Every structure is written in C-alpha cells, then in structure tokens.
Amino acid sequence: MKFFHPEILYIETDVLNHPRTLAILERLPGIAVQPIDDYQNLGLAHLTANARFKREKKGLTLAPKRGELVKAVQRDLFRNIPNEYYIVHSLGCPFDCQYCFLYDYLDHQIPTIFVNIEEILESTQEIIESKPFEKLTFHTGEFSDALAFDHLTDLSQPLVELFANYQHAFVEFRTKSANVGNLIGLPHNGQSIISWTFSPQRVVQLFEYGTASSDARIEAARRCQEAGYGIGLRFDPLVRYPGWENGYRELIENMGAQLHPDLIRDCQLGVFRYTPGLGRIIRERFPKSWLRLEESVPSGDGKYRYLKPLRIDMYRKIMGWLGEFFPSLKIELCMESPEVEESLAENLRGNHKKEVFIS
Amino acid sequence: MQIHAIPLKDILFSGADFDAFIFTFPLHAGPLKDSIHKVGLLHPVCLREHPQGWQIVCGARRVLACRELGWRDIPAQTWAANACATERALEISLAENTLHRQLNPMEQARALHKFHTLANWEISKLVTEIAPQLGLPQSSEMVQDYLSLLKLEPEIQVAVADGSLSPAHAFLLAPLNPPERTFLFNQVVQTCLPSLNESREIIENLLDLKIMLKKSLPEILEGKNISAILHSSLKNPRDKCRFLRIELRRLRFPQLNRLEDEFAKILSALGLKNNVQVRHSPYFENNHLDFTVRAQHAEELTETIQHLSTVSANGGLHKLFDLVKHGV
C-alpha cells in the first residue's frame, strides 16, 4: 500500500499559517496549494460521479473543525448510544471502497483534515473528565479512515498519549491501512484499540481500492499486538461474491495463524448494506461490479441487505470459522435486525449485542 | 437591416456544417409548404456568408419549403461571416426559435450541443444561460442527460422528437450500447409501453442479469419465457409489461423467488378456507405472519377460527413459520 500523497492541497484561508498546516506542508514538498474560503463548497458537481470522485480523491483539504468536535454516537435519529463518541479529526477518505457510505453522505469526496487538533483533544479530554465513573469509548474511524493520514498528521500520538492517562476511557482507531508506524512504541497503557476491517484479498482487489492488502492488514495487526495493543476484528462489510466461503475461511485461517487470541478485544460482523442513494452511486460508478448482484432487499431501516436466509447463513459460517481459531472471541452483530439476532441467538450466546436497528 | 433576394441554389443544404445553426429536428417542411404556397413567405430567413455559399442561421424549414415549391430565390437578411460570429449566430437562432415555438427535446439537445461544441461553452454556462431559455431545469445532470440524447439511434431520436418516447425514458436507454439499446427499444419499450419506473426496473434487472448470467441483453430477452411473453398474443401492452417484470424479477432474485414459491406451496397444502389470507412480511424480513379473516356473521368467524385452530394444533403452520424465520 502506498501512503496517500495528494496532488493538490486546498487550504482554508483561516488556517494558512496554522502550525499543523505548516507541518503537513513540510511533508508534501512541491505540492500545488490553493487557498479556499470554505471546505464544504469544493465539489465538482458538473462532472459525472465517476469522473468527479476520481478527481476529488486526488485532492486534500486542510480546514478548522467548527461546531461539535466530538459527537455522541447515535443509535438512530433520536437516540444516542450512551458513552460512545466519534472524534471528528477528518472527513472523507483517500481510499476508494465501492461500498463506502460516505459517497452518499458527504457533499464532496475531497478528504479534509481538521488542523485544530489541540481543540479536538481538549474537547475529548473535557468529556473524559466529566464522566469519571463511566466506561467511555471514542471512535476515530467513522467519517474517515483513522490512520490513513497519520503519516501527515501524527494524530495517533497525542490521542494514544491522552487516553493512556485515563483508565475508564478507550480510543478505537479503525482502519484499512497498514499505517501503524507511529503507534509502535507509544505508551498506550492498554487504552487504545486498533481495529481493522478484515476482508479476503479478493474483496480488497475487487472493492477496496487503494487500501492495504489483506496480508498487510494482518501483519500490521500482529505488529500492534506485539507492541501490546488490544486489537479489534471488524468483518464489516461482509461481502458475498462467487467463492466467498473459501475466501473468508482462508482469511480467518491466516489470522488464526498470526494473531494472538488473548490480545483481541472484540469482533464485529455486519453484512454489506446500502441506502438506495448509495445503490444508485454504485450502479453508476461500477456498472459491472458484482457488489450489488447478490440478492439484496429493503430491510426495516430502509437499507438494502442480503435476503435474510443468506445473511444468517453467512453469519453462521463466519462465526463457526472464527470459533475454530478464536474460541473465546466476543462477537457482536453490527446494524442487524432483531430477527437475525434471534436466529443466531445460539451462536451469539454470552456475547454482548449492540447497534440493533429498529424496524 | 437589409433584405436581399438570395438564390436558393446558393444556400447550403448539405455538407459538413450546413446545419451548424439549425436546431430543427426532424428537418422537413411539413405544413409550412402549403402555408407559403397559399399566403407567401411572411418573414425573411437569416443567412451567414460561407466560403461555399450561404449558411442558414434561421429559417431552415422555410428554405426547404421554398425549394420544394420550386422557388428560385428567397428574401433573406444576410451577414458577412466576420459580422456574425458563430456564438452570435447560435444566439440569434436560439432566440428566433424559442420565440415562436416550444422546441422538442431533440431540438433542445441539439441547441445545447451546438453551444457546447461550436461556441465551446462549458456545461456550467449551458446550465445558467441556455437551459432557462429552453425551459429546462438548471442542473448540470439534466444538461448532460439532454446531451446524451444525441447518441441515440435515429429511430429513437425521432420517437423522442415526436413525443412517443419521453426524454426521461430515453435518458435510461442512453447508457446502453447501440445494439442493446435498439433491441430494447423495439422489443420492450415499443411492445410493452412501460412507465418510467417500470422501464428503470426492467433495464436495471436486465443489466444485472447480463453480468450474472454472462449473456448479452438480446440473448436474455430471447430466452424461452421472456420471448413467449414479448411475442404473445396479449393485446394489452400493460399485461405484457407486467408479465415481463415478473419474469425478470424471478431471474434476478432466484432465492427470493424460491421462498415465494415455497410459501405458496405450503400455504396451498394447508387447505385454509377462502376467507383466510396469510401474508409474510415484505421480503421475509420479519419472523411473523399476518392472518386476515373475512367474515360476514359471527358463526362464520367462529367456524373459520376453529378451523384455523385445528390446522395450527395439528402442526400445519409450523412449516410456514419455519420458512419465514429460517428460509427453509
């Protein structure tokens, strides 16, 4: 995997001379720079989706984060999941996964790094200190890949060091990269969890452009375990494609051979799902892709998922293979219906369930 | 403004750029010929000087009608080439055309295309300057959609121009390759008259099946069942459309189809009374069944519920509940 190196840098005029901006500029010598007024008004709307996204992914924006710097995780439109938060350090992602919900979520796909990191850290610290008796979890990979920009920002360092001071707060870095160089050797005190979306190499090749290979992710996870980090396994999205059973079985075998079960914090499974809007984008951008071709139907929350028996079958098989290599693994389903949870009750027994959508 | 009598033989009506400023489509004199024959030509045409003669800026149908009527020359307002730049000529043509009539969708597409290619206007400028004059929404997607009409085959363009095919239908056909598009237009659109949403569903299912079955679109449509529908003696195109959609869905969603068939089979074997309806949730997403009982008096209701209870007590409904829960 090559580290992300943009062709053009858009910088909001307010942060042209911000120390973080200057530090990033030093790491991108010779890059074209274009001052802008507002990072939200940068889209190339007149182009077709494919041309537009391709071009937008070659840029990078530096801007200050305004408004909420740390957001409560929402279970649905009206309810938060208690004590879980997103740290909004960037928006958009340099990778180009066919199934990414951000294509249907963001106004444009030019990745944006927020340079007012100190304020973001302060805001995080305030929340941690305001709830000293509750277990808190902060996620960093919801609106972007948590580590894809780390070679430019070094953001992981202050975050890991901040959380190392608090026994009741954890930070999760979720990534598809192998960009873990900054993490090794940091005093994390067990409060940082590094999570990977693990996919068979065929899925990486077909649907996850620009990301680290399957082997590289496992190797990065192994290095992090060696450095004492707890890691998270995320099989989300699980993608059905011709030969998926062999692909996932092989992937889990490889993981079993290289990862230490005791340093795996948890595991989440979730099938590929998409909103109607994202479905249109995938169809337009990748008309020949297999991604949408398995039988997906509208579920209770309006998103399309594989037909219920297909996903139950998929979960059951994956859980079985995981059980062979990681017998005491805590497995959760992500964004699944109560009916599917019920059908898998035997397999999930003893596991904590969360993020069940309301149908 | 000076009006001159210009010999019709000197006015370009063939060659590479004779129609540079002509938006009219299809180009024929139509009823104008009779009108000119009866009352004469009321308005002069507009011509621009060209190395090979005169290029029509406005009045293509008038020129054609006069030619067909055997006139030798025609009154025209003329410009030297350097007195009327390409962009200006396009603007005059557009103003003259939109003043007198509503352009059909193909003519709107041609107008956008000519400003785009001859005057080098960006899409964004077409959106703000030309789309409003044509009465089109000011959106770059819409402009792109209209430009895509020009790659359609002549027979489809004529259908769009005469209103027998809506532009929105044509936008759906535009991304297909030419042989597939022509086949679909002739075999499905003309035969089944699908609505816009139905067309979208049919095309999307066909494109998916093309990849899933590794067959071309005509090969799929010539398959046994679909071909039987398309060439059936059904007189109502809506019936053909309905059966075609059902068959395509069966092919596209075989597992869902298997569940539906299995559900119907089990239900039928239960021998429930006609006044009882049993429904599963959409796409079998939920684990429950809805039972609807229709009764006209208390005795009928009691009798129906008793029968249903007996069927249930004998384990008859287990298979149905297992199917919606586990898919088997």
Question: Could you provide a short overview of the structure?
Answer:
The complex is a heterodimer of chains A (359) and B (328). Chain A is of the alpha/beta class and 359 residues long. Chain A has helices at residues 19-26, 49-56, 117-130, 150-153, 156-163, 201-207, 214-226, 244-258, 276-285, 308-325, 338-343, 345-348, and strands at residues 8-12, 32-36, 59-63, 70-74, 80-87, 90-91, 96-97, 112-114, 136-139, 169-175, 192-197, 208-209, 230-238, 264-271, 296-298, 304-306, 331-333.
Notes on the structure:
The complex is a heterodimer of chains A (359) and B (328). Chain A is an alpha/beta fold and 359 residues long. Chain A contains 12 helices and 17 strands. An 8-stranded mixed sheet of chain A has the order 4-5-9-10-11-13-14-17. Chain A has a 5-stranded mixed sheet with strand order 2-1-3-8-6, with no helix packed on it. In chain A, helix 8 links the parallel strand 13 (230-238) and strand 14 (264-271). Chain B is α+β, with helices and mostly antiparallel strands and 328 residues long. Chain B has 16 helices and 6 strands. Chain B has helices at residues 32-39, 60-68, 86-100, 105-117, 123-134, 140-148, 154-161, 167-173, 178-192, 196-213, 217-221, 224-230, 237-252, 254-270, 298-313, 318-326; strands at 3-7, 45-50, 53-58, 73-79, 276-280, 289-293. In chain B, strand 2 and strand 3 (53-58) form a beta hairpin. In chain B, helix 8 (167-173) runs parallel beside helix 10 (196-213) and helix 10 packs parallel to helix 13. Chains A and B meet through helix 10 and helix 11 of A and helix 5, helix 10 and helix 14 of B.
Helix-strand category of chain A: alpha/beta
N-end to C-end Cα span of chain B? 84 Å
- What share of residues of chain A is helical? 25-40%
Instruction: Note the beta-strand portion of chain B.
Output: 5-15%
Average predicted local confidence, pLDDT of chain A: 92
The main β sheet of chain A shows up as: 8 strands, mixed
